[in-house]
């Protein structure tokens, strides 16, 4: 099973084969794999040296604290409005005016929906048949809010031109028109975890195709929903109740038969006996009377503590191997200092965990290992310089992979010495490949997380790659060749490592082209993360590297995870997008998983099977089961069940469409095309999809033709906006694409980010700071402005939130008092943007600016540096590339695009 022939990963369509059950995935000792594993025995080439000059040095940088996941105030709105069906009711059809006509349309009202599950829930869950499944209308019996969270669902606002734009919506939740959909009740998994592109299943493939829409989902199985935890199922004598045949977990949408003595599985339709200890009374509508008291029968997302039979070996301890570039290039950029300082501050939790294991490897053209055994008074350094025939680890005495709690003194000693040990290093080689082989060899029998901090292209030993000439390729058809790995070494290593629960997180701190597209295969096929800091400098990126590295050590992590997605008959997964290792058509190995781990899934409809399903269920279900080991050693199963009504009518399909999620999935799909074909083909695919959707709706809807206006279902109003923004993002744009490394990283982000992260990345939020009201105690962000140069005035100060950074833009005519209040100087005329720093000053405007920055940062779990941009400065053009509503040399302006779409026939 582990050596499955269908080993693929990273967004490749899957072949189908019989899948094993995730709960039965063997986690035993690693199988020996085709000579790739490394022998561990004494190395003649190794020499033992005392660690040189382990001097105490001042900490270079304070580690930025890990920003918590957003904890925003809740928005409670009046009672929800139940939306009528589409087409018959013009209110659900959005006419998008092709010409700027100020004041043409007033902002629409906003609906709200409960979107919470929780132990505090008092409302009895509705049975599957409580809502009409044939027309997609929402159940009106949503009752009072339950759980702890209520969210305003997304909609749009209009600028003066009446063109729809996203509201200032932190999470970009489903549109208002979908917000009342029965699939979004508390019994179904919520959009934070499992979000479909259509909140209903079209009854036939032809019905789906007639709309031009794409059916699929975006999953973030380990996501942290603000102010709400996934509830844990109370253990009973019945154990974990699962279908005997397909092994899906019992959930709120199964059918109860024979007075509760049996239940029908919604995935495979088998009628199962209900364990006696799990039986309960069933009412005349087929509902379990005790459903509200049983988490697994009332919540769409639950977690089980797995019993022993779910373990094939003792749960894996949290294991970290740090692989650090200490070459001359790295040392000149102070990278060892940044890493040492960060780790010194971030390992506290690991020291306190008695199970946690840690090892360090550094490299230039040689490999350096560190014996950290607590039996020795000092850490010992061992250097290996011969690895032409493969790496041999030095004799493991003293031990290199050690319990952090026991070896704390030696680890601290080592980290204190790092900055001075390599400050005069003249060796500019980078034996990254051999260092990774050694790291894998060290932890292959345990599993774990390898954190790789590289200062550039690997140049020595296995995995060394030559720099490819990219100057003439950028923005042409030849670029795609550079976006595919130059060497399969990293992918092959990943394919060996993933089944053994080893993942690689890559931090590339590069000053020159680094072959990121080659090296990042490591992370792509092991469920790892990629961080990229082009033109790295300590002053520009030091804090950010520190925060990102710290986050990967301290954030909650699921270890040795596998995720299986089971779909109702009639639904078939056709592909995954993200960072993972596919074991079969529905089983992903995820050596590490955390809140940001996100996967796109495309799903096909199989008519005859779905027809059979409809005869028994009005809902189709998809269930994602993530089996993982928590850092405390508990084996757990997190189960997300998404229930979608099966609908046979077009209006119901359109009404359930989730434009933001669809845009995110289409972008993820485009990244694959960009690499397998060309950037141009990826762009065409995005444009053609939007054309198809517009043309399909025109041909189907009488109200859509003849007016010269673009008419779209209300739920899809923002799809053109996100399509256009996607084309202007660095992942897919033609002009200003920058370097191949930059493109590769942008594609990685598009492939792996959750929906709201991705959409805020391609269409950042723009706020005006000045002129405007000043509020030092600001508690709510102002409305966002259109992403166009027209939003900027030469006397304005603006703030742009690109998700990964904040850009403070200052107009050339900004009044002196504003400059003085914000920057503490009379004029910025003679100061380079890069020299400017924002410091809190003792005045209300400065406090207002910092309050805005702090509010935005509190919504992110990434560190966000603030870049200052002067209107006439060198970064103004970079800032303007985020103004995606404006025309670029290859893509029209947003209103023009809407006009062009309106003319499609
Ligand atoms: Zn079943």
Automatic annotation (TrEMBL):
* Domain called Zinc finger Sec23/Sec24-type: residue spans: 240-277
Q: Where is this region: Disordered?
A: 100-171
Q: Which residues form the Sec23/Sec24 trunk domain?
A: 315-551
Q: Which UniProt keywords apply?
A: Cytoplasm, Endoplasmic reticulum, ER-Golgi transport, Golgi apparatus, Membrane, Protein transport, Transport
Outline the extent of the Sec23/Sec24 helical domain: 658-759
> What subcellular compartments does it reside in?
Cytoplasm; Endoplasmic reticulum membrane; Golgi apparatus membrane
Please report the stretch or stretches of sequence annotated as the Sec23/Sec24 beta-sandwich domain.
Answer: 558-646
The main location is: cytoplasm
Q: Which GO terms describe its cellular component?
A: COPII vesicle coat; endoplasmic reticulum exit site; endoplasmic reticulum membrane; Golgi membrane
Q: Which residues form the Gelsolin-like domain?
A: 780-843
InterPro entries for the chain? ADF-H/Gelsolin-like_dom_sf, Beta-sandwich_Sec23_24, Gelsolin-like_dom, Gelsolin-like_dom_sf, Sec23/24_helical_dom, Sec23/24_helical_dom_sf, Sec23/24_trunk_dom, SEC23_SEC24_subfamily
Regions of compositional bias (Low complexity) in chain numbering: 120-141
The protein's superkingdom reads Eukaryota
Question: What family is this protein classified in?
Answer: Belongs to the SEC23/SEC24 family. SEC24 subfamily.
Q: What is this protein called?
A: COP-II coat subunit
Upper classification of the organism = Eukaryota, Apusozoa, Apusomonadida, Apusomonadidae, Thecamonas
């Amino acid at each position: 099973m582990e050596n499955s022939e269908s080993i693929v990963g990273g967004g490749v369509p899957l072949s189908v084969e019989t899948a094993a059950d995730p709960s039965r995935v063997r986690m035993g000792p690693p199988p020996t794999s085709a000579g790739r594993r490394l022998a561990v025995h004494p190395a003649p080439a190794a020499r033992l040296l005392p660690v040189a000059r382990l001097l105490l040095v001042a900490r270079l940088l304070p580690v930025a604290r890990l920003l918590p996941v957003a904890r925003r105030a809740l928005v409670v709105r009046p009672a929800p409005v139940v939306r009528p069906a589409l087409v018959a009711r013009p209110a659900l059809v959005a006419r998008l005016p092709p010409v700027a006509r100020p004041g043409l349309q007033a902002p629409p009202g906003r609906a709200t929906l409960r979107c919470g599950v929780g132990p505090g829930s008092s409302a009895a869950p509705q049975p599957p048949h409580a809502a009409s499944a044939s027309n997609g209308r929402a159940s009106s019996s949503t009752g009072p809010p339950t759980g702890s969270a209520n969210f305003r669902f997304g909609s749009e606002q209009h600028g003066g031109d009446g063109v729809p734009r996203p509201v200032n919506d932190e999470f970009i939740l489903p549109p208002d028109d979908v917000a009342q959909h029965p699939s979004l009740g508390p019994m179904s998994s919520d959009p934070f975890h499992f979000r479909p592109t259509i909140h209903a299943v079209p009854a036939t493939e032809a019905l789906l195709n007639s709309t031009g829409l794409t059916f699929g989902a975006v999953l973030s199985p380990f996501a942290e929903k603000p102010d709400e935890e996934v509830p844990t199922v109370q253990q009973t004598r019945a154990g974990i109740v699962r279908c005997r045949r397909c092994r899906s977990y019992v959930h709120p949408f199964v059918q109860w038969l024979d007075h509760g003595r049996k239940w029908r599985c919604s995935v495979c339709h088998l009628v199962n006996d209900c364990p006696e200890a799990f039986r309960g009374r069933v009412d005349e509508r087929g509902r379990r009377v005790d459903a509200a008291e049983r988490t697994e029968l009332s919540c769409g997302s639950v977690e089980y503590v797995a019993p022993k039979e779910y373990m094939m070996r003792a749960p894996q301890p949290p294991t970290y191997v740090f692989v650090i570039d200490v070459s001359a290039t790295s040392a000149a950029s102070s990278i060892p200092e940044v890493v040492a300082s960060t780790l010194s501050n971030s390992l506290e939790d690991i020291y306190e965990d008695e199970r946690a294991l840690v090892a360090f490897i550094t490299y230039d053209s040689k490999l350096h290992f560190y014996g950290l055994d607590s039996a020795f008074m000092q850490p010992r350094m061992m250097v290996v310089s011969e690895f032409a025939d493969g790496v041999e680890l030095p004799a493991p005495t003293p031990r290199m992979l050690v319990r952090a709690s026991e070896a704390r003194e030696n680890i601290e000693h080592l980290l204190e010495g790092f900055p001075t040990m390599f400050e005069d290093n003249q060796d500019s080689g980078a034996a990254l490949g051999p260092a990774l082989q050694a790291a894998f060899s060290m932890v292959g029998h345990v599993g774990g997380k390898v954190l790789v901090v590289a200062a550039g292209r690997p140049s020595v030993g296995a995995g060394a790659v030559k720099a490819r000439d990219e100057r003439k390729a950028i923005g042409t058809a030849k670029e795609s060749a550079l976006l595919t790995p130059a060497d399969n070494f990293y992918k092959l290593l990943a394919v060996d490592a993933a089944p053994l629960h080893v993942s690689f997180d890559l931090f590339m701190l590069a000053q020159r082209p680094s072959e990121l597209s080659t090296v990042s295969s490591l992370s792509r096929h092991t469920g790892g993360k990629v961080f990229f800091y082009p033109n790295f400098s300590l002053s520009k990126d030091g804090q950010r590297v520190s925060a990102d590295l710290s986050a990967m050590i301290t954030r909650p992590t699921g270890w040795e995870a596998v995720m299986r997605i089971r779909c109702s008959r009639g639904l078939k997964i056709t592909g995954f997008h993200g960072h993972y290792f596919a074991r079969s058509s529905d089983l992903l190995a995820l050596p590490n998983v955390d809140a940001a781990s996100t996967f796109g899934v495309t799903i096909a409809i199989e008519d005859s099977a779905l027809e059979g399903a409809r005869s028994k269920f009005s809902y189709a279900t998809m269930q994602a089961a993530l089996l993982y080991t928590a850092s405390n050693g508990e084996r757990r199963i997190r189960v997300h069940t998404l229930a979608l009504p099966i609908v046979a009518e077009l209006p119901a399909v359109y009404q359930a469409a989730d434009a933001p999620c669809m845009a995110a999935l289409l972008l993820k799909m485009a990244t694959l095309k960009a690499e397998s074909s060309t950037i141009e083909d990826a762009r065409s695919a995005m444009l053609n999809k939007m054309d198809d959707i517009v043309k399909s709706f025109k041909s189907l809807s009488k109200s859509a033709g003849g007016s010269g206006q673009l008419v779209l279902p209300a739920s899809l109003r923002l799809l053109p906006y996100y399509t256009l923004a996607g084309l202007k993002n660095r992942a897919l744009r033609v002009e200003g694409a920058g370097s191949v490394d930059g493109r590769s990283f942008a594609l990685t982000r598009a492939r792996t980010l959750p929906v709201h992260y991705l959409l805020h990345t391609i269409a950042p939020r723009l706020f005006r700071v000045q002129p405007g009201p000043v509020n030092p105690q600001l508690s709510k962000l102002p409305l966002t402005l259109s992403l166009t140069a027209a939003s900027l005035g030469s006397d304005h100060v603006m703030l742009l939130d690109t998700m990964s950074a904040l850009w403070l833009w200052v107009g050339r005519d900004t009044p002196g008092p504003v400059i003085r209040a914000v920057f503490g100087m009379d004029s910025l005329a003679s100061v380079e943007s890069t020299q400017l720093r924002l410091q809190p000053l003792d005045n209300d405007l400065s406090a207002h600016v910092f309050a805005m920055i702090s509010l935005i940062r509190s919504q992110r779990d990434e560190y966000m540096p603030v870049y200052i941009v002067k209107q006439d400065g060198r970064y103004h053009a970079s800032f303007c590339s985020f103004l995606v509503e404006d025309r670029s040399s290859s893509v029209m302006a947003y209103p023009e695009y809407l006009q062009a779409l309106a003319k499609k026939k």
